[in-house]
Amino acid sequence: MLPQELLTSFKNEALAEEAFKGLRLRKGVTCKKCGGRHHYWLASKKQFQCKQCRFRTTLQSGTVLQGSKLPVSYFFIGLQMLMEKGKRISIEEFQKETGHKYYDPLWDFVHKLKDYVRKNEPEVLEKDFTEVVDTYFVTHRQVS
Ligand SMILES: [Zn+2]
To answer: Domain map of the chain by residue range?
Structure first.
C-alpha cells in the first residue's frame, strides 16, 4: 500500500483499536497489581483483565496514549508519519492529517510518540509496527 493509502486506512478507529490491541499482545501485557502476564480481553470495556487478580488494564494504559483522550488511530497515523519523514513531523502537519481541532493535546502526543520511537530499538519498532499493519490493515483491506 502507498503511504497515503495506509494513512487513510489507519483512520478506521475500530480497526486501529484492534491493531493496537494486537501490538500490545505481541509485547505482552503485564498486570500492574500482581505482575501477571495472562489476561482476558473484555471487548465491551476495551480492557484487559488479569486472569490471576482480575485487575483491569485499559487499552491505553502504559502506552503513549495513556492520559489522553485521543483516538487510537492517531498512534498509527503518527508513527507512519514519523517513520516516513525520518522523525521530523510538525504538529501542524499532524493536525492537518488527523483533522483534530485542538493543538495542545497533539503537541503532547507527538512529543511522547517521538520519545517512544527514540526509546524503542528502531528495527524492533519497525518490525512490530510493519507486521501489525500488515496483519490488521493490509490484510483486512484485501478481504473486504
Ligand atoms: Zn493481576
So the answer is: 3-28+62-143
